[in-house]
Amino acid sequence: MSAIDLEEEVKTKRELGKQYFRQQDWGKAIDAWTEAIELDGDNTTGELGVLYSNRSVAHLKRKNYTDALADGKLCVKVAPDWPKGYGRCGDAAFHLRKFDDAIASYEMGLTYEPSNAKFKQEIARCRAVISGASARSSNAGGGSAPRYHVPQVSVSALINAARGSYRAYVPIVALQTLVLIAAVLSVLPLGYSLSTAAYVWFCRAAMASQLLSLVGNAALLPPLKCRRDAASHQGLSRVL
Asked: Which among 167, 176, 177 is positioned nearest to 221, based on CA atoms?
């Protein structure tokens, strides 16, 4: 392939990658630029630095930060006096949380382009992250005892829960008392009619008491538990 044909082919692949990039098809953009890089492996066209730079940012978009950093370094190697490559290295290093390396890359880029506002802005951002991490580390290692939050439940919530419990058990206790009275009357020498009537009331009250106990356990106590849980959650939400 002649130099002219090679240049045209590389340019075509480069433009195709840009088209895919604008469509946010990062994978196809990477493939197109990779093909162009393979065609121009010895940088005959002088486009190799641009291709590595483009592929680096495509990797960055796909969150392939390690690959983005590798292409950024290749860009710097091919075009060491082009600040764009240092910017690609800095961006990838930042996402890899290598903040010192990112600062060094941006500062190197500033030596070739001192007026680059983005590099200055990114350096400030890296230093802010480092300062914030250092401050959190200092607070964590300050020797102060850990603080624990104890859930607090209001008195009114406890009172309401107690009232609900009382209302749930009053009918059961009343029927059980009636059962006891009927049982006593049924064994006293009050005559056949009164004793029989007392025995009948004893049986009825015993059945009603048992039925109410079952209903209370199934229907009355779960709402009481819900009230207790709600009160506890209300206390937690104020503390957390």
From this structure: 167
